[in-house]
Amino acid sequence: MTSFPRHRIVSDVMTTSVHVASPLTPFKLLVRVIEENRISAVPIVDQQGMPLGIVSESDLLMKQRRLELESSHDLLHVRKRRHERAKAAGMVASDLMTSPAMTVPSNTSLSEAARLMQEKNVRRLVVVDPRGRIAGIVSRSDLLQVFLRTDDELRDEITGELIPAVLLSQDDVVGVEVSWNVATLTGEVDRKSDAEILARLTKELDGVVGVVNRLRYRWDDTDSVAPQPASLDRAISA
């Protein structure tokens, strides 16, 4: 039985070689870890590898603003300013980290990870294994990697996996062209619902930017009155 293409999850794109630190790691060592490894943040973990928080470059840069923060009096944002002053005065990771760390299981879909990043306005998520220990880290750029899939790779997946899983009729003939990750579907299928389902599932494939649906169908199975020939020629864009 033909199966549908598998959607990628964060474990497919995450960075597994993660530089971590303990809550007692000194400020200077955190800076060194970030600079030497060309990363933008360091997860803070306990002795069992459980994420406690994360220290980013922006957290460390609070130190450069300590004189400004100590001398200013912002009556409208008292709590925020108090929090910033504490970070600016921090000397070890536990003082500086944003806690709790934003975590996701390793089997989280890329779309769900993207939604969380946008809703929470974060640049990265800590990935944990089933025991809750750190397994990796996934960034915004990691999630965008899926759109670097080649046109040939996408076309092969549509023709070799998706179409056989959706269309059962031997009379269905579908042509697929992919350019800049935009898929164009042509040809003729048996039912209108087949054309609509195929276009929708093609649009949902990892790495597809948009779909142009030029499929024709022999009868409209969505019409409860009477089936009749028709054509479907419309663009579905992302």
The fraction of residues in strands falls at: 15-25%
Radius of gyration: 25 Å
Continuous helix count? 10
Helix content: 25-40%
For the biggest sheet, the summary is:
5 strands, mixed
Let me know the average pLDDT: 88
Distance from first to last alpha carbon: 30 Å
Question: What does this molecule look like?
Answer:
With 238 residues, this protein is of the alpha+beta class. Helices cover 36% and strands 24% of the residues. β6 and β7 form a beta hairpin. α9 runs antiparallel to α10. The longest helix has 16 residues. It is elongated, with a radius of gyration of 25 Å.
Task: Give a quick set of tags describing it.
238 residues; single chain; alpha+beta; three-stranded mixed β-sheet; 36% helix; five-stranded mixed β-sheet; 10 helices
